[in-house]
Design brief:
With 117 residues, the chain is mainly alpha-helical. 59% of the residues lie in helices and 3% in strands. The longest helix is centred in the C-terminal third of the chain and has 17 residues, at 89-105.
């Protein structure tokens, strides 16, 4: 899948996949929303509005109120690709969210997921 295809995907179709990944591992919807808020600056109301508006996944990140500067502390791999090697800033932000949800699903404490420890 190309970057452009990922950017064009519907946020309303991607979000349930992220949420379900965490829920299957015993995490909560609130924790997923907290991760999204930490990374992007969106409130729960913002996320609900964008789910209803059917915004693209790329626009979800392009229009984020405030991407967290601490996101650059997120290291590791997503889908076999090291985050540090992703050159496209938009794709990197998308993969940061994937990585945070992965960490949440693996049972990492919330303060570590949010780089607060």
């Amino acid at each position: 899948m190309t970057n452009e295809q990922v950017y064009a995907m519907s946020f309303a179709k991607v979000y349930p996949l992220l949420e379900n990944k965490a829920l299957r591992k015993g995490r909560t919807k609130e924790e997923v929303r907290r991760v999204i808020a930490w990374l992007t600056g969106y409130t729960d109301e913002d996320v609900e509005r964008m789910l209803a508006e059917d915004i693209s996944y790329g626009d979800f990140f392009r229009n984020a109120p405030q991407m967290n500067p601490k996101r650059k502390e997120i290291k590791g791999s997503v889908c076999g690709v090291k985050l540090e090697l992703i050159e496209d800033p938009l794709m990197k932000d998308i993969r940061y969210l994937d990585k945070l949800i992965d960490e949440l699903a693996k049972g990492k404490p919330m303060e570590k997921v949010l780089r607060d420890a």
